[in-house]
Amino acid sequence: MFINTYILTNMVISMRSFRVSFCCPAAQEGTSYTMYGTWTLDEKDSLDVSWRKNNIPVEFCESHIRCPKNKNVKYYIIHDRHSQTSYISKMKILNVSLEDEGLHVLKYVGMNSPLYLDIMRCLLKVYAKGYHSTCSYSSNTARVYIACIAKGVYPSSSCVIINENQAFNGHTRNDMSTATGNTGKYFNTMCNIILELSNLTANKDVYNVTVNLYPNFTNTDEDHQYGTRINLQIHKERPKLILENCPSEVYEGSEVTCVCKDVSAHPEPVVWYSGSSIVSIETKNKINFTATSKTKVNYTCQTNTLADFPVVNIVYTLKILALFTPMNGQKVDASCS
């Protein structure tokens, strides 16, 4: 709802100083929207008023403001008197559409003025929230990956992710919507962002964030008020470590290979440890060694997260079978672990 109030005691002189365009709150497609103009003047003064869009009359009212309520399919217009010298005019757009964007003006003609001058001006912007908005996410111990889409929006949109008092801008892409029946003006907006969980305010393993998909009117924070807000409760996903191609027992002298993997949605890097010492990290998630009687048989695979969260690990235990030749010359297997 938008209201401009002017006191017209010296009509021609005072109104000329207000001949500027005013930005009024944006209107949402499919809703109703009301504009007001109020003024004061002596009853003896003659005044004709008219609502216009882009300088084309929407409705005309004459004879000292004394005109009946006017209603048509698109607009509902009322001119009324508040007091002996105070008047109001309301124009209600019954069902806002993108075609309603433009300059809406309430004009008047006074007794001493041959020209129409302005009582109020509203440069109306219209936005469409679209017919489908949704977000999904996945996370691990360090990061959260958020992906959102809003279909059939207008104008092109941006997104911001809010956590407590923090705001993070997402990466957006706007494509023209190809939905059946649209006018070719609508967009499908896709928003993606990767956040470090260490930057968010957490409640144990749960993070509450809000995604706001908002139209680009002014490219400032003022546009946020017109956005579609989607609340997400993000549960931190822990790594899921598995061992792959790792033998449980080998003979002494055998070459051993063991692979450790994080099979969660967004895998974390891993590091192999032998006791408290890091095994060569050049092979990343794989260890290679020759089994000997002196080989340490317990290795630990551990996530190497960048964030300050508890790590996840898995232990690889290998049984080494020794070969030796007794006095009778027959080879015998023996376990050294």
From TrEMBL:
<feature type="domain" description="Ig-like">
    <location>
        <begin position="239"/>
        <end position="304"/>
    </location>
</feature>
<protein>
    <recommendedName>
        <fullName>Ig-like domain-containing protein</fullName>
    </recommendedName>
</protein>
<dbReference type="InterPro" id="IPR013783">
    <property type="entry name" value="Ig-like_fold"/>
</dbReference>
<dbReference type="InterPro" id="IPR007110">
    <property type="entry name" value="Ig-like_dom"/>
</dbReference>
